[in-house]
């Protein structure tokens, strides 16, 4: 028993040394790792570990701007076409409600299947290869090289919330805070529903000592209300078909309710679309010089920190008229900011 106790006494200091070494290797307080992954302290004191998003997630996070594709507006046709078809079928069948009603089922299939017939393209193999090279470069802490790959992918692929997020991490790790804020705000604009993007933006702005920033878009994507508008618009005509065929008060009430839902969805679509398309900008590096008039010889009356978010309200002579989150308004050179 004495031998066993002696061994334990020798093992305790070794274990203490091991624990101390582990504790010394951990980030303390507000510190964060410049490498991969990044560790930042959020606004609520939570330590966030920000890792690069991988290839599949980036490829699946392309913009869901359905309203930007002209062919998607064909999805508004099935409802009116259904009503017209059944109207003529009823007239030909000498008022037979049963014969006309049997046509509703197949016609409804068209209503919900037409948008999916537009198809989805597979990702370009060259884009996938460039994306993979960019991720590997970022993981090796070659951030400038990674940004070149990511920018090439962005030019080819279009907007992607996860791609902008990875570009923001690379910029922040390489000491370009203004660019990091810009890309994070862009990623939120592309996918406002992702809470991780908002947490990352809050943490980055907090570590850059930025306050009273312009709020990012609300956490509702215009595509959601666009889809609801399409669905309720078509269902409005389906309800109108039942009113026409059966002439019952219950169907008339249903028609009015669905029409109101369609109108409400369209109103919310217009509102969220306007929110997402508001012109924003971010001071990209150094300090932004705010002036009262858009002239080079005008006196600087306020300096803005790198990463300060702005709302653009006008343009003139190479200057932008902007408003800060604190309500200050003035002119800044267009070359000093990144446009969202």
SSE diagram, text form:
Layout: H1 2-24, E1 38-41, E2 47-50, H2 55-59, H3 78-92, H4 97-101, H5 104-113, H6 125-139, H7 143-157, H8 161-173, H9 177-190, H10 195-207, H11 222-246, H12 249-276, E3 280-283, E4 288-291, E5 300-304, E6 309-316, E7 319-324, E8 329-333, E9 337-339
Antiparallel strand pairs: 1-2, 3-6, 3-9, 4-5, 6-7, 7-8
Helix pairs in contact: 3-5, 3-11, 6-7, 7-8, 8-9, 9-10, 11-12
Tally of separate domains: 3
Helical segment count: 12
Can you give the helix content as a percent range? 40-55%
* Main sheet characteristics: 5 strands, antiparallel
Shape: elongated
End-to-end separation? 72 Å
Q: What's the SSE pattern?
A: HEEHHHHHHHHHHHEEEEEEE
What are the segments in which pLDDT stays under 50 over at least 5 consecutive residues? Answer: 1-35
Strand content: 5-15%
Radius of gyration: 28 Å
Number of strands: 9
Provide the spatial order of strands within the biggest beta sheet: 8-7-6-3-9
Report mean pLDDT, rounded to a whole number. 79
Return the structural class: alpha+beta
Q: Can you walk me through this structure?
A:
The chain is an alpha+beta fold and 340 residues long. It has 3 domains: 71-120 and 220-278, no CATH class; 123-207, Alpha Horseshoe (Serine Threonine Protein Phosphatase 5, Tetratricopeptide repeat); 280-339, SH3 Domains (SH3 type barrels, Roll), CATH 2.30.30.40. It has 12 helices and 9 strands. The strands form 3 sheets. It has a 5-stranded antiparallel β-sheet with strand order 8-7-6-3-9.
